[in-house]
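>> received
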Amino acid sequence: MIRILAAALAACLALVGCGQSSTGDSSSASPASTPTQATPAQAPLSGTINVYAAASLTKTFTELGDRLMAEHPDLDVQFVFAGSADLVAQLQAGAPGDVFASADERNMTKATDAKLVVGEPTPFVTNHLTIVVVPGNPHGVASLADLANPDLKVVVCAPQVPCGGATQQVAELAGVTLTPVSEENSVSSVLTKVTAGEADAGLVYRTDAKGAGDKVSVVDFPEADQVTNVYQIALLADAQNPEAAQAFIDLVASSEGQQVMREAGFNTTQG
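>> returned
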């Protein structure tokens, strides 16, 4: 059974830097080359792997972890889901892990520079922002500029996490100054604020908005298409179960894994 570990975030926030997104058309920031076909392992995998993954990957990675464990009953896949910057801070502080998946290139670069990962990180999907509002959109939000309304309670991601870096970029492109009532450490926290009625609107990834279903109304805006978050995954240098960790990475990049990501709303290299 997957056990989603609690992410110890508070102690790490002071350590983290800013997230980064790629600016430009999404076609210019595509993931890696064509994903490989999923292939069965030569021998059954066993033991435990700890996967540190961006909060926006919670649903898809949990599903892929279930599939890998179904194929290898003696394998236990555990996850830590949080903002990418917080995950890097935890790994730098010595948290044990086997795989790191970041929602942007900047935080993966931080992990690489700190020699936390081995090999070349693999880009596997991209994502863009959208606006979520309470169901029915009672405040009539129609554009990013509408979020500058001082009467609206707006929540966004903190600048150091990937969704926060993307928020800063789209706001600059639109010439909009946002004054959020809170800055959250993960995109899932932004979404929760809106679905719980604690905020009128928030900026989240399109995949998170899709996953929320009728709990929110969605307002797309053109500037979002100009800022692309490129997700990357890598094997951690101190992995205790590198064979199983690599099998999970291979599954994410496989045709099977890419299909799961695509169904969740991510952009992939396959049609």
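>> Confidence is low (pLDDT under 50) at residues 1-41.
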